[in-house]
Amino acid sequence: MNRKFTPKKLTIVSGIALVLLVALIVILIFVSRSGRESAIPSRVTLYRPETSEIVTLSYEDFLCGCVAGLLPEGQSQYNAEALRAIAIAENSRALYVLNNRGAAFTAPYAKVEAVNFGADFVTNADFPYISTEISVTLRTAVQNAMNSVLRFNEEPINAPMCKISAGRTDEDALSPSVALPCDIDEKGFESRMAFTPDEILSALHNKGVLSADCSNWFGKSAYSDSGTLMFIEFGEMKYTGAELKRLLGLRSTAITIQFAEDKFCFICRGFGENRGMSISAANFLAKTGKTAEEILAVFYPNCEIVRE
To answer: Average pLDDT of 234-260?
Structure first.
């Protein structure tokens, strides 16, 4: 017996098919999002080199302690929107580490800290966790930021940050070079450290023969347009600004060197590695009325902020 589909029946069938199609699309989107492995953890472990111990703490407390450690002027000096922007960036690189630990890293991502003795994180420049009393403003900012993630190609980013720029940040794969004259007048913009020739020899582990005249030890150098030391010759070796910062305990990678009175004076501009978001500038922008999202768009314009 032939069954004829009336216009009414065709409408019903088409409606059912449309509902099923929408349901399938929703399921696929959910599966795709859940496969990105960026769920916010409830608790994490942290290796603290200063005490040689691994501690377990809530993820919220971990982020609060890390954001507090990033603030050179103390919690009370920072606008709530600046704190939220910093917390979103810190949350993003924490999730990046959790998602990528043990993987082979290529640009635009930096290498994840490997020496963590089995913990999720290790206290370092990226995660400068400190045990301190957390202000209501900072904790609220972290709570509001925990479900927001900066993504590049749908993955959380290892968001670069510095405490104070050298007046202009360096460009990298995730962030453009941004002029920040507001940082030049910031407290702590310039710092100086002096070292004897013996201290320099001990720290830099030079290979080869050096001149008897200490003033000639450092030779040819190259700088980025932002003032970051790209490299400087030292005898037969070459050191980047980042290497000198680490080996000598300097505050910045924007370094100039002077020799006087039998000592090397290292003059640094800014605080940190001069990439990504300047925490000082983020606070300045927040005080002018910028939201956290607008601040992040200045420093990470190629990334999107996703609510998890």
So the answer is: 95
